[in-house]
Amino acid sequence: MSSSFVPLLVAVIGGYLLGSVPVAVWVGRAHGFDPRETGDRNPGFWNVRERLGWRAAVPVFAGDTLKGTFAGLLALAVSGAHTAEFGVVASGSVVPVYLAVAAAMAGHAWPVFAGFQGGRSILAFVGGFAVICPPGFLLGVAVLTVTALLSRSFAVGARAGVFGLPLLQLLFAPVEHVAGTGALMCLIGLRFGQAARAARAARAARRS
Fold first, then answer.
1. What are the backbone angles phi and psi of residue 89, rounded to the nearest 5°?
2. Binning pLDDT at 50, 70 and 90, where does residue 201 land?
3. Local structure of 116: helix, strand or coil
4. Which residues cross the membrane (predicted)?
């Protein structure tokens, strides 16, 4: 096995296993319900927050975000920790880190530890982006905060912060890295599409 292939293998396997940790399911079960069978059936932060409130959902928020962060850090470590100015991933660490974050998102979406029934991977993406482009991540948090305060809605602020990340990344990284970030976000779009189809099928089944 080529020595250059080992970091990629570690990044993908490690990222997927980290992403597969079913934090929302564990928290939900501790409170007597399974988020995969309640509300919008999404085992993630938003569904748990709707059922239990902010305080109980904080571990889900932190855990799902850290999946991507730890996956990215693992890949960064095994690939030689190549970074440019402000800690932006560079050189030989770019592909392993992106693959690890993608794997963590896939693990969250289709977790091996939870019957392959997972969430939409938004927080795993955000946590991974914190490793990919730390200054872009911090600016994204600022956008989220300001927008949430102005709109008086955390949900609106979160959308602005997340969707603004590729544009903010352009300030610190080459366009091909931003394209990679866009590819990661396509996985989120795929999960939302799957959720929409499942919801339509459920409504049709109830009407029949």
1. -60, 145
2. low
3. coil
4. 6-27, 56-80, 86-110, 122-150, 170-190
